[in-house]
């Protein structure tokens, strides 16, 4: 199944050229042209994945060294694909950072970083443009459960946009201020769309989409819809289905996962307790658990998720 990204309207337009120019357009759109260091043909980077990958999340400059932002670009890929050096240099680091496998290469004033990558090089190894640094992993990727390579760039001591040195010619991209969320995969959900009753009678406190995580501070996809319900509120199945898992996850806390057929699954997360067992057949409206604040949670709420063929989609498209 393909996993494509869309570029919404009402957005920031970025273009890389030799001089920095900013023009304000009607409606508040900004056309930005920026260069970060020399961009001559000898200094341009090659793409780290072959064939040339799709950019699924663009660079979003952080306002400060510790502020939220997207310090690189995410490139769509396949697990196990070879990851190649973008230019000649020396491996500055090959190991793990906060549990994520990372490779960094110095290029005389520029540094490229690649994650998540199972390294086949060691710190201090000289590399040439196109040399294999390792293979692309799934775990630790910014696009999980989809697979992508996060390519970062530092120009001196500052973060910079890798796309300014990639490819040939200028780039023009339409991106929202917080970066584009993955597009829901194509799935035949016509019989289900708009037919489900919400799992709790409570207002939405955080919708599906890109956001800064309230605990980690990282800009990432919020892969479900949060309902601001009090702890202990009954959580009900949104449709007929079968319970496929009742588990505890460090991030999602106590959770119940249901299969509704056609490749569609729902999960009910951060529960105080589950009221069903794995393998049980459940009718729409049956209580499956109670709202809680388990796992990585800042307070009582229900995090409701829908997956179509293994990929997260916006639950609102299914709810009545």
Overall radius of gyration: 22 Å
CATH homolog superfamily of the largest domain: Glucose Permease (Domain IIA)
Q: Sheet bearing the most strands, described?
A: 10 strands, antiparallel
Number of helical segments with 4 or more residues: 0
Shape estimate? elongated
User: Low-confidence runs (pLDDT<50, min 5 residues)?
Assistant: 1-42, 168-191
N-to-C span: 27 Å
**Architecture of the largest domain in CATH?**
Distorted Sandwich
By secondary-structure content and strand pairing, the structural class works out as mainly beta
What is the top-level CATH class of the largest domain? Mainly Beta
Order of helices and strands: EEEEEEEEEEEEEEEEEEEEEEEEEEE
What percentage of the residues does DSSP assign to strands (E)?
Answer: 35-45%
The name of the CATH topology of the largest domain is Glucose Permease (Domain IIA)
Mean pLDDT: 78
Q: What is the number of strand segments?
A: 27
Q: What share of the residues lie within helices?
A: under 10%
Number of domains: 2
Oligomer: single chain
Helix/strand layout:
Layout: E1 12-15, E2 21-24, E3 30-33, E4 55-57, E5 73-76, E6 82-84, E7 89-97, E8 100-106, E9 110-115, E10 117-119, E11 126-127, E12 132-136, E13 148-155, E14 158-159, E15 172-175, E16 204-206, E17 209-212, E18 219-222, E19 225-227, E20 234-236, E21 241-249, E22 253-259, E23 264-274, E24 281-282, E25 287-291, E26 302-308, E27 311-313
Parallel strand pairs: 1-3
Antiparallel strand pairs: 1-15, 2-3, 4-5, 5-13, 6-12, 7-8, 7-11, 8-9, 9-13, 10-12, 13-14, 16-19, 17-18, 19-26, 20-25, 21-22, 21-24, 22-23, 23-25, 23-26, 26-27
Keywords: Signal
Domain M23ase beta-sheet core: 69-162, 221-315
Protein name: M23 family metallopeptidase
